[in-house]
Amino acid sequence: MSGFGVYIHWPFCAAKCPYCDFNSHVRARYDEARWAACVVRELAAVAELQGDRRPDAGSVFFGGGTPSLMSGRAVGAVLDGVARLWSIAPDAEITLEANPNSVEQARFRDYRAAGVNRVSIGVQSLDDVALKALGRLHGAEEAKAAIRLGISVFPRVSFDLIYARPDQTHQAWAAELKGALNFGTEHLSVYQLTIEQATAYATLARQGRLHLPDEDTAAGLYELTQEICEAAGLPAYEVSNHARPGAASHHNLTYWRYGDYAGVGPGAHGRLTVFERRLATQAERLPERWLAAVEEKGTSLTIGDISRSDAAHEHLLMNLRLSEGLDLCAYRARWGLSPPRARISALKEAGLLTLKDDRLAATPRGRLVLNSLITELAEKPEYQTAIG
Ligand SMILES: C[S@@+](CC[C@H](N)C(=O)[O-])C[C@H]1O[C@@H](n2cnc3c(N)ncnc32)[C@H](O)[C@@H]1O
Ligand code: SF4
Question: Phi and psi dihedrals of 305, rounded to 5?
């Protein structure tokens, strides 16, 4: 089952990190209650699109930006709005992304009281020098305190780390990762540093002022990450996400299993199946324009149909991120096509794919080169004469 999830983008941050190209903005002040009310209005527009065939919400995710800048009251107001529009499943996963600064830790209990049952903390590193280089406003001790508090307040905790950082050695990363795993959380997101265009890091990299690991070193760090996390009982269930069995993020699984999700707030996107149509929704990116559009028209969303072949391509792309891979039989039934057998065989031979009981999955090495793998697979799909 791929479920239905609700994503809320909170676009504000206390400072802009030099590596980050998420839709995040620093604003001296804003009217939080007004923003939360507009989030609920845009959610209502999505619910209206779904009409009376609204699924239950299996997950709600507050992402950013920095949703931990929200007060518990604003989080509660948004969750009340979600509950007025959809039935929230009794076991729904309600996640909030939090930065580990002490000011934000002080709100953890309010979030729990508002209904949040999972926190995802942006730790990034447990090393003070690295945190400074990443432009973070918190130090290692603050981050550790946030993880400990998170564990005591929320039933489920995850945190994020970034590796393949400038000047990082295998040895230092292994020690840092093992230290992180010692906290015993059920879930860990471990991202390889990406130099995104138009960030301060991109400028530094162009000027030769970031000593980044070369491709082979980064690939070595990736393999090391897989080994260490697996040995600690948190194998990868997705390219960058590790969890104990059964503790994967339901919300993120909805994306990767190509389910339906509402996406509201500046820059958020969504995917909805309405009758036989696959719809893509895209919210206005700039915060102030988003607010103005929602206040004027009730929504900022642009809505478009995704063609059958584009949807099939997206489905393949999303499923192959997961270690469980793609159910070829279900895929053929849904889209009436499948990747060419000869390509699958060649990629199997190359050690990049596995095919077992009609389940196609990328190997850890395949997940490292996922984009080229998908380009190979998506080219000239084989169409089925009979769907099934
Ligand atoms: C949407 S961000 C929000 C998290 C939260 N605002 C924070 O910074 O703690 C989610 C995660 O993406 C990761 N991330 C952001 N930019 C990245 C980059 N350029 N390379 C690798 N990971 C990145 C970080 O680990 C971050 O915690
Ligand atoms: S990494 Fe997090 S805190 Fe930093 S700018 Fe991006 S969203 Fe904001």
Answer: -80, 140
Q: How far does residue 109's CA lie from ligand 1's centre (Å)? A: 23
β-sheet bridge partners, residue 25: 12
pLDDT digits (tens, 9 = 90+) for 168-222: 999 999 999 999 999 999 999 999 999 999 999 999 999 999 999 999 999 999 9
Backbone angles phi, psi at 339, to 5 degrees: -60, 150
Q: Is the dihedral of CA 20, 25, 26, 31 positive or negative?
A: negative
Angle 243-144-186 from CA coordinates, rounded to 5°: 15
Give the residue, by CA position, lying nearest to ligand 1 atom 6: 66
Q: Which atom of ligand 2 is nearest to the CA of 97?
A: 2
Is residue 246 exposed (0-12), middle (13-18) or buried (19+ Cβ within 10 Å)?
exposed
Residue labelled with tokens 């990116």: 285
Structural tokens at position 56: 């239950």
Distance 136 CA to ligand 2 centre (A): 9
SS3 state at 214: coil
Top mutation candidate among 10, 20, 124 for ligand 2, by most atoms within 8 Å of CB: 20
Q: 52: CA distance to ligand 1 center in Å?
A: 36
| Cα gap 91→377, rounded to integer Å | 36
Specify whether the CB–CB gap between 82 and 4 falls below 8 A: no
The overall pTM is greater than 0.85: yes
**Residue with CA closest to ligand 2 atom 3:** 13
Please give the pLDDT value at position 383.
62
Q: Whose CA is nearest to atom 2 of ligand 2?
A: 65
Distance 339 CA to ligand 2 centre (A): 37
